[in-house]
């Protein structure tokens, strides 16, 4: 097997409308696909070359201990201010490392979402 790219990352959610309010209303993402089937409900957001998805399906439950996606933002300070203004719960941060600024917040189901900004020269 040869893996050539990450096709998508997906978070399980319990309430798709509530999750869409967060990902679209708070984070400002635009849905590129939104479909419900007998197997669940899926919403996709194309970001650069990748896709972030949210979904609801039987037996697939959110977890505050699961994997996290890191979203690269244009203006870190403005993003943090907007998240605080929206009363989004912070898991940790914001912090500064030698290569970036980052913070992790929680979506309405407790999934961890990273907010990230690389420093110049670290791309």
Quick structural summary:
The chain is α/β, with parallel strands linked by helices. Helices cover 17% and strands 40% of the residues.
How does this structure look, described?
A 4-stranded mixed beta sheet has the order 1-4-3-2, covered by helices on one side. It has a 4-stranded mixed beta sheet with strand order 5-8-7-6, covered by helices on one side. The two termini are 28 Å apart. The mean pLDDT is 94. β7 (100-106) and β8 form a beta hairpin. The longest helix is centred in the N-terminal third of the chain and has 11 residues, at 16-26. The protein is α/β, with parallel strands linked by helices and 123 residues long. The chain has 2 helices and 8 strands; from the N terminus they run βαββββαβββ.
Helix and strand arrangement:
Blueprint (H helix, E strand, L loop, with lengths): L8 E4 L3 H11 L6 E5 L2 E8 L2 E7 L12 E4 L3 H10 L4 E7 L3 E7 L5 E7 L5
Parallel strand pairs: 1-4, 5-8
Antiparallel strand pairs: 2-3, 3-4, 6-7, 7-8
């Amino acid at each position: 097997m040869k893996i050539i790219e990450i096709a998508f990352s997906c978070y399980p959610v319990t309430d798709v409308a509530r999750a869409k309010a967060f990902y679209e209303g708070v984070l400002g993402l635009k849905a590129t696909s939104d479909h419900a089937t007998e197997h669940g409900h899926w919403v996709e957001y194309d970001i650069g070359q990748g896709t972030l998805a949210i979904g609801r399906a039987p037996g697939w439950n959110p977890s505050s201990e699961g994997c996290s996606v890191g979203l690269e933002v244009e203006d870190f300070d403005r993003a943090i201010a907007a998240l605080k203004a929206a009363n989004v719960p912070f898991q940790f941060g914001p912090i500064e490392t030698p290569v970036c600024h980052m913070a992790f917040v929680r979506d309405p189901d407790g999934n961890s979402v990273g907010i990230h900004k690389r420093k110049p020269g670290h791309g």
